């Protein structure tokens, strides 16, 4: 129930008591006054008036209590005031006395005050001086260190300056940090550090530019040192080889004598170059990079420096690895390219070993692998343009020195030696092209006649150049002739020169003697089977090469073939391997020269047949003559005389070649004569012409029976004309009955006469009989002969038709 509700209930029960309670509530301040007052005004009419009355009565009661209390304490108050008034007089007297005493005291202490102030002032000054001295003693080392820092900056001793800064910051500045000048110094140090970084970076840039400019000289020096070291090592190795009994023969000098000479030259060259040998430190001042590295290490920014250095060096590496477009034209272009690369990596290797962390082995290996791929691509591209074997050889030597130099600094170079094997194939190709020209020149200058020897000295000169042995020829007296022409010893010498040239490339490739021997044999095989074989075939097919020259070429190839075993021994000797270790790679010269001989033989047969055709084309028969001239035709006698002279030259050829040429010539002559009889343009032939033709065939048979080339058995060569002989005998004897009766029998007298051939010739004679014997029908014998011819013609035609149906 709320307070207002409670008040209303009270007013209804006992109004007086209720107002008393309301006043009690107001005085107590425990209940909200708003609700109490509202109950007074809202509950009953006239309640406010009654409440005010009660309130006034309550006030009057309180006033009475207050008045009682004041009356009770009034006497005490009056007594206190009386006492105060008594003291007031004494207080005024005391004040006058104190004032007077103070005046007299002030007057007496003025001088003391003055002196005291002076003393105080002096004491303050003394204290200030002491304080200043103490502070100056504290500040002077800082100022001295800062002055030292300025001097170090001026003297460009930046690393010392950074150390001084560290001392200032860690030791001195904390002592005087409250002073303004210290704050200024502290604020200036970062700027000084930045200045040092900029100056150091500028020095580093100058250093990078310097090593870029000096890369050529650094690389040249490093490669020269590596080359000298290699020469010295090879010399010692050769000396050891001689001591252990390995055979090395150069310039016909003994191994001991040659070895002493080589060692002497090697040491003399080393002594001459000893004073000139420079190290990379002599050529380049590395102090800027050391200082810069130390400075950035002190500044705690070493990683930035490392990244910048590596980035710039990679850029320089790309520039160094970029070749000039005409580098392949001269060896100097390749040399500059290699020296720059060597110089670059020599510097990197030096930085790797004298610094910690600036360049790591992993970084250099990565850089080298990138460079190696680029180098191989560049060399593969540019070397492909080289057509001069001397330039390729010099390039190989440069690559070997380049590889040996960098290998000495710990860089892997196996891929470079693999590249050399590719270049070796190209070198061999350029050698083959060069020697193709050499061989062509030798063939052009050769006179294709046996070498005349006037005296013993000339003979020894030839024998020293070419391994020729002939006991029968040695027994002959001078002057005499060697069977081969001048081109043979020249070719043999050039093949040896080619082997020497090929050996030059194989040297220093870090390969065993067996591998070098195998490479030499393969390259020599290419020379023989490709280059020399091609030159020989080209020579053989030249139009101006006659039969005599072809014969001499066959003789030459025979001697060159015999010399192949000496070339194999020569390769074995120069590679210093024993005969037991030689593997199965052999020289293919035997097949090369055999093929050339076969080509020459075929060309002999072709040219001999062409010559025969030229003579046969000179034939001028009168096919309608009634009687023969009684002697053989002039063209045929000239042809036979030509064949006799040619076959005399063939005596120097192997027997089968001469016999084959002679048989081929006779067969071709027989075929040509037969074709002359059966020529479709020849319409008629008289018996006199046949008799004249028979005289020519008799001369051919006589020539064949005279054995122009020895070695034929019986009448083998005469069988080349058997077809003509049987055909002419058939027409000369007019033995048609025997031919027709024995046709097809193995023992037939005219076994080699073909019915078609006989029919063709008979028809030509039949037409001649008709034209020349207009009145033959009036003579009984002629009529009988004409009937016989017609009968034979019919029978021959039946034989021809039977043959065609049978086939």
UniProtKB/TrEMBL annotation:
It comes from the Eukaryota. Keywords: Exocytosis, Transport. The keyword Transport applies. Residues 416-764 form the Exocyst complex subunit EXOC6/Sec15 C-terminal domain. Signal peptide: none annotated. Residues 54-223 form the Exocyst complex component EXOC6/Sec15 N-terminal domain. Belongs to the SEC15 family. Component of the exocyst complex involved in the docking of exocytic vesicles with fusion sites on the plasma membrane. This is Exocyst complex component. It comes from Vicugna pacos.
């Amino acid at each position: 129930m709320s307070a207002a509700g409670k008040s209303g209930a009270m007013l209804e029960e006992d109004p007086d008591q209720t107002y008393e309670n309301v006043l009690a509530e107001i005085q107590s301040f425990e209940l909200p006054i708003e609700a109490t007052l509202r109950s007074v005004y809202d509950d009953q009419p006239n309640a406010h008036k009654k409440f005010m009355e009660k309130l006034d009565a309550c006030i009057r009661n309180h006033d009475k209590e207050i008045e009682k209390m004041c009356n009770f304490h009034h006497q005490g108050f009056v007594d206190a005031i009386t006492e105060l008034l008594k003291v007031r007089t004494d207080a005024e007297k005391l004040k006058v006395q104190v004032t007077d005493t103070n005046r007299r005291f002030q007057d007496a202490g003025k001088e003391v005050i003055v002196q005291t102030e002076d003393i105080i002032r002096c004491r303050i000054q003394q204290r200030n001086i002491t304080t200043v001295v103490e502070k100056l003693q504290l500040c002077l080392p800082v100022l001295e260190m800062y002055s030292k820092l300025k001097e170090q900056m001026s003297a460009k001793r930046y690393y010392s300056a950074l150390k001084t800064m560290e001392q200032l910051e860690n030791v001195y500045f904390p002592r005087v940090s409250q002073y303004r000048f210290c704050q200024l110094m502290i604020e200036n140090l970062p700027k000084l550090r930045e200045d040092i970084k900029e100056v150091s970076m500028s020095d580093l840039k100058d250093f990078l530019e310097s090593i870029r400019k000096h890369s050529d000289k650094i690389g040249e020096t490093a490669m020269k040192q590596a080359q000298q070291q290699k020469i010295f090592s090879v010399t010692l190795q050769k000396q050891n080889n001689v001591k252990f009994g390995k055979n090395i023969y150069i310039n016909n000098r003994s191994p001991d004598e040659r070895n002493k000479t080589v060692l002497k030259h090697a040491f003399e060259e080393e002594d001459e170059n000893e004073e000139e040998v420079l190290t990379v430190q002599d050529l380049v001042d590395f102090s800027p990079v050391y200082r810069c590295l130390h400075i950035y290490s002190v500044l705690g920014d070493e990683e930035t420096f490392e990244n910048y250095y590596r980035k710039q060096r990679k850029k320089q590496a790309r520039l160094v690895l970029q070749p000039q477009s005409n580098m392949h034209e001269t060896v100097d272009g390749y040399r500059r390219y290699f020296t720059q690369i060597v110089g670059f990596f020599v510097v990197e290797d030096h930085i790797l070993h004298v610094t910690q962390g600036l360049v790591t082995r992993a970084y250099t290996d990565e850089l080298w692998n990138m460079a190696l791929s680029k180098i191989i691509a560049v060399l593969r591209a540019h070397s492909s343009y080289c057509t001069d074997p001397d330039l390729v050889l010099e390039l190989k030597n440069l690559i070997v020195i380049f590889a040996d130099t960098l290998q000495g600094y710990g860089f892997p170079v196996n891929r470079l030696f693999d590249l050399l094997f590719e270049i070796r194939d190209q070198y061999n190709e350029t050698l083959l092209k060069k020697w193709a020209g050499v061989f062509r020149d030798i063939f052009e200058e050769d006179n294709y006649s046996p070498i005349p020897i006037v005296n013993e000295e000339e003979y020894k000169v030839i024998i020293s150049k070419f391994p020729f042995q002939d006991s029968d020829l040695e027994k002959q007296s001078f002057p005499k002739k060697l069977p081969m022409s001048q081109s043979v010893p020249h070719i043999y010498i050039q093949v040896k020169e080619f082997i020497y040239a090929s050996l030059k490339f194989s040297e220093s490739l870090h390969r065993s003697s067996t591998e070098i021997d195998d490479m030499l044999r393969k390259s020599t095989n290419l020379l023989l089977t490709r280059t020399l074989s091609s030159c020989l075939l080209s020579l053989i097919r030249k139009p101006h090469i006659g039969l005599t020259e072809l014969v001499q070429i066959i003789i030459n190839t025979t001697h060159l073939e015999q010399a192949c075993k000496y070339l194999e021994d020569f390769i074995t000797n120069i590679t210093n391997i024993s005969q037991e270790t030689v593997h199965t790679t052999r020289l293919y010269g035997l097949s090369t020269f055999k093929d050339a001989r076969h080509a020459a033989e075929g060309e002999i047969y072709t040219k001999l047949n062409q010559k025969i055709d030229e003579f046969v084309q000179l034939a001028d028969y009168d096919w309608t003559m009634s009687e023969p001239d009684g002697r053989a035709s002039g063209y045929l006698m000239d042809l036979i005389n030509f064949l006799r002279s040619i076959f005399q030259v063939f005596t120097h050829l192997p027997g089968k070649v001469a016999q084959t040429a002679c048989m081929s010539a006779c067969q071709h002559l027989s075929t040509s004569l037969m074709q002359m009889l059966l020529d479709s343009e020849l319409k008629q032939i008289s018996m006199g012409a046949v008799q004249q033709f028979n005289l020519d065939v008799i001369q051919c048979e006589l020539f064949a029976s005279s054995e122009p080339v020895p070695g034929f058995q019986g009448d083998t060569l005469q069988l080349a004309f058997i077809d003509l002989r049987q055909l002419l005998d058939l027409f000369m004897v007019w033995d048609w009955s025997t031919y027709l009766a024995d046709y097809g029998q193995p023992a037939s007298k005219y076994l080699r006469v073909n019915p078609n051939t006989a029919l063709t010739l008979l028809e030509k004679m039949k037409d001649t009989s008709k034209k020349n014997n207009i009145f033959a029908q009036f003579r009984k014998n002629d009529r009988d002969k004409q009937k016989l011819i017609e009968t034979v013609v019919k029978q021959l035609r039946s034989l021809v038709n039977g043959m065609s149906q049978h086939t």
